[in-house]
UniProtKB/TrEMBL annotation:
Belongs to the glycosyl hydrolase 10 (cellulase F) family. It is an enzyme of class 3 (hydrolase). This is Beta-xylanase. Residues 126-396 form the GH10 domain. GO terms for biological process: xylan catabolic process. The keyword Cytoplasm does not apply. It catalyses: Endohydrolysis of (1->4)-beta-D-xylosidic linkages in xylans. Its EC number is 3.2.1.8. InterPro entries: CBM6 (IPR005084), Cellulose-bd_IV (IPR006584), CenC_carb-bd (IPR003305), Galactose-bd-like_sf (IPR008979), GH (IPR017853), GH10 (IPR044846), GH10_dom (IPR001000), Ig-like_fold (IPR013783).
Length: 849
């Protein structure tokens, strides 16, 4: 039967030829395009249509993409295994069919898109991070335990315990493990700076060799971390800038390639996607490494993108992807206390990252409340429940797409006190063309703007302040608009230079008072680089308290707490005194740098402005500069050094007052705050007296509302303390005490440096517990005097208030007097205790005045 059909077809074809009709060509069909995952089995089935004869052969050819080994059956079925990849690949195959008369079809093409299997990982910092990690994550980066300063804080003494735990957990559970980090300008051993360059290079070589020997199965390595923003202080040992400008980075990668031949080598940096110029700077280093075949992936930390322009981020991500290298979103987090706002921004950014063909994976930098470097960036609350941002991520990664939803975000608005409201620039609600960097808005050019929605103005707010830094001499100004940028601005303020981009000044202007809720728009004018803006404030001058945060600003007892950053000698003296019996003398000053420094970290709080003043006297023969300045370091921002007052004409042998405001932004968790004096030419002595740092009220507790975290608080019984949005009496957060093993002191605040002898303070606190019935909440104190001066019968641990019937799930106030006797103070603290073990306790609105 088959022979007859064949003969019939042959005769028919012959008849067409004899009749002068061309035979139709066979038609190849390679099948529809496909999308597959890496390492999956791929099947392409050939088919055809040949009206003029029988098909004889199928010929497949790969015409595009990385070459793969494939097989073709007699029936034209092509099979292969999709290659392993870190970026999306397009493999192109062409099919040609030939019939029994030797006629060939035109080629038909099919495209097989190979998607990488992306990971969603996290950074681990403690044993608790591993408990539920596998519920959400499938990759691990040790947060701190792989940093050289953590491993080898003491030369030749290696501490591997926490790093071993991360590595072993990853290996046991089959998770990709990324080592973080080999070379970084921060968290490096303190001792390395004292070595010669040759010794430093030998230590770097030893460091890499030790890591390679101990962890032979590292998958990915951050070889150099933050080469642009935090270059290693010992980079000269690696070749310094050299001919390329980044020879030291190239040398580090060459060494890493030698020690870790099987690991993927990554360059890691932050602020690379926010603005085009940041991306261009990063590309310079990436391309130098790529030209030499030294880099296997690009790390983008993705910190500080809370207010980034998402389309700009996407465009800059495409620029990095143009290298052909995989991109690793390596340290992603969004620091929002508001669940809805975090979820909305997470959706917008995560979608860009996860869907991008060059992104190989995303690592969220920690995930548990109270266990992250940024207070409000957690995805899982301390009670184990997930925030909406995490719920959306899980839904989206499981393929939910547009069906995955987030809560509607409604801006909370901006409320202040009777004295005014401070708008932190980097916390703007809307904006265009600017970069929110740490605690400032930067890269402000003509026409850029930011807006704050729903600012509640009060009668009597007749003053406007702006705190900014400007390092250029080009003209610049801001204009303030109310409820839209149409029409004439209500205020325009010129911004003169401040000396440098890290030296801040505050300008005060009269303001036409408003009432009610209004949207505030701030437009930048005139030229590129208008200013780095820290904050603006609307209000009225706030009367200072009579509290001085310096226990002995008159130096009657000595110079305790003071130090010198330039090696000057500090001592008390009676030679020159403004008030009292003594002043502080700064002598042997080698240069004009910071000769007298006082650290305030433990006594200042977020969202507070302090009035600072000091009296100075110098022995020069002519007028001199004396500068009162400060250092402000926040947990999630670069250090800044605002000038409080720079007097360039201080008369000699005369007491002159310097004064200014030290402003701690609302979004700042203070990690290092100090005031200092500098600027005076060396060669003569400077005297200092009557130094004051005065808060706007009498509360000795740093952030008694816990809006910036739990800094200054500790537990004597091992309880876990964290700031939480779950319960708050006022503001957005309160302190939560969990894992309480007993009824002992679960929350303690030390007041030793803030209280005075023979003084009575009013203490107030609000407490809430989650027990099923009434329970005890006790406010108590520790008042330790020196043995020689303690009054007879002195009680070192007095109870201030013991309420044994606090109603559950209800905020209850505890208040009493803290009486400091007339003694030499050794240790003073307030603390909370007495509540049944295992019950969570919340504290808020704590004050000591």
């Amino acid at each position: 039967m088959r022979f007859r059909l064949f003969a019939y077809a042959t005769v028919a074809a012959a008849s067409l030829v004899l009749a002068g009709c061309p035979l139709p060509e066979p038609v190849a069909n390679a099948g529809p395009d496909q999308a597959v995952d890496e390492c999956s089995n791929v099947v392409l089935k050939a088919s055809s249509n040949d009206p003029g004869g029988y098909l004889a052969t199928y010929k497949w050819t790969q015409t595009g993409g990385p070459k793969v080994a494939f097989k073709v059956s007699k029936k034209g079925v092509l099979t292969f295994v999709a290659p392993e990849t870190d970026v999306r690949l397009a493999l192109t195959f062409s099919l040609v069919v030939t019939d029994t008369f030797g006629r060939k079809s035109k080629p038909d093409t099919v495209i097989v898109t190979v998607d990488q299997i992306k990971f969603f990982g996290t950074a681990t910092g403690s044993a608790d991070d591993y408990t539920n990690l596998l519920t959400w994550f499938d990759q691990i980066t040790p947060e701190n335990s792989g940093k050289w300063g953590s491993v080898e804080a003491t030369r030749d003494v290696m501490t591997w315990t926490a790093l071993d735990a991360a590595y072993d957990f990853a290996r046991t559970n089959g998770l990709p493990f990324k080592f973080h980090t080999l070379i970084w300008g921060q968290q490096q051993p303190g001792w390395i700076g004292a070595l010669t360059p040759q010794e430093q290079l030998e230590e770097i070589e030893e460091w890499m060799a030790e890591v390679a020997a101990r962890y032979p199965h590292i998958d990915l390595i951050d070889v150099v971390n933050e080469p642009l923003n935090a270059p290693a202080g010992y980079r000269e040992a690696l070749g310094g800038a050299g001919e390329t400008g980044y020879d030291w980075v190239i040398k580090a990668f060459e060494m890493a390639r030698h020690h870790f031949p099987n690991a993927k080598l990554i360059l890691n940096e932050y602020n690379t996607l926010m603005l085009e110029q940041f991306t261009a700077n990063y590309m310079t280093v990436v391309e130098l490494l790529q030209e030499r075949g030294l880099i296997d992936g690009i790390g983008e930390q993705a910190h500080f993108l809370e207010r980034a322009d998402v389309p700009v981020v996407a465009t800059n991500l495409d620029t990095l992807a143009s290298t052909g290298l995989p991109i690793y979103i390596s340290e992603f987090d969004l620091n929002y206390a508001d669940d809805a706002r975090q979820a909305n921004v997470m959706r917008d950014l995560f979608t860009v990252f996860w869907d991008h063909p060059a992104v190989a994976g995303i690592t969220h930098w920690g995930y548990r409340q109270g266990a992250m470097w940024r207070t409000n960036a957690h995805l899982v609350r301390s009670d184990g429940t997930t925030r909406p941002a995490m719920d959306w991520i899980v839904c989206y990664m499981e393929g939910g797409g547009d069906s995955c939803t987030v809560p509607e975000y409604v801006p909370a608005g901006w409320q202040g006190t009777e004295f005014g409201v401070t708008l932190e620039a980097e916390l703007y609600d809307e904006g265009q063309g600017v970069a929110a960097l740490g605690n400032i808005v930067a890269y402000t050019d003509d026409g850029d703007w930011i807006a704050f929605k729903g600012v509640e103005f009060q009668a009597g707010w007749d003053t406007f302040w702006i705190t900014y830094a400007k390092g250029n001499t080009d003209p610049g100004s801001i204009s303030i608009f109310i409820d839209g940028m149409q029409g004439t601005p209500v205020l325009t303020v010129d911004l003169p230079p401040t000396g440098s981009w890290n030296s801040a000044d505050t300008i005060e202007q009269p303001w036409a008072a408003l009432t009610g809720s209004h949207d505030v728009y701030i437009r930048f004018n005139t030229a590129p680089g208008v200013a780095n803006v820290d904050s603006v404030r609307f209000g009225k001058p706030q009367p200072p308290s009579d509290v001085n945060l310096l226990p002995d600003g008159g130096f009657e007892s000595g110079v305790a707490g003071w130090s010198s950053w330039n090696g000057a000698t500090l001592m008390t003296t009676t030679a020159q005194v403004r008030t009292g019996l003594q002043s502080m003398l700064a002598t042997n000053r080698p240069n004009a740098n910071q000769f007298a420094v006082y650290n305030l970290t433990s006594v200042v709080e977020s969202d507070t402005t302090y009035a600072v003043s000091a009296w100075v006297f110098h022995t020069g023969t002519e007028n001199q500069t004396v500068r009162l300045a400060s250092k402000l370091a926040c947990a999630s921002a670069s250090d800044t050094y605002p000038w409080l007052q720079n007097n360039t004409a201080v008369a000699s042998n005369t007491w002159t007052q310097l004064s200014g405001n030290l402003a701690i932004p609302a979004g700042c968790t203070p990690t290092d705050v100090a005031i200092f004096l500098e600027g005076t030419a060396p060669g003569f002595d400077v005297y200092v007296d009557d130094v004051k740092v005065v808060p706007p009220n009498n509360n000795l507790i740093t952030d008694g509302g816990f809006e910036s975290g739990t800094a200054g608080w500790s537990s004597w019984n091992g309880s876990t303390l964290s700031a939480t949005t779950t319960r708050a009496r006022n503001g957005l957060q309160s302190l939560q005490a969990t894992n309480r093993p007993n009824t002992s002191q679960f929350a303690v605040y030390n007041l030793t440096s803030a209280v005075d002898r023979n003084t009575t303070y009013a203490v107030s606190a609000w407490a809430l517990h989650t027990a099923a019935a009434n329970d005890t909440a006790r406010l108590a104190a520790k008042i330790e005097c020196s043995a020689a001066t303690a009054p007879p019968g002195h009680n070192t641990y007095p109870w201030l208030q013991n309420n044994s019937a606090v109603v559950p799930n209800t905020w209850t106030q505890l208040s009493a007097n803290l009486v400091i006797p007339d003694c030499d103070i050794v240790d003073v603290a307030i603390f909370f205790e007495g509540t049944t073990a295992g019950v969570d306790v919340y504290l808020d609105d704590i004050s000591v005045q």
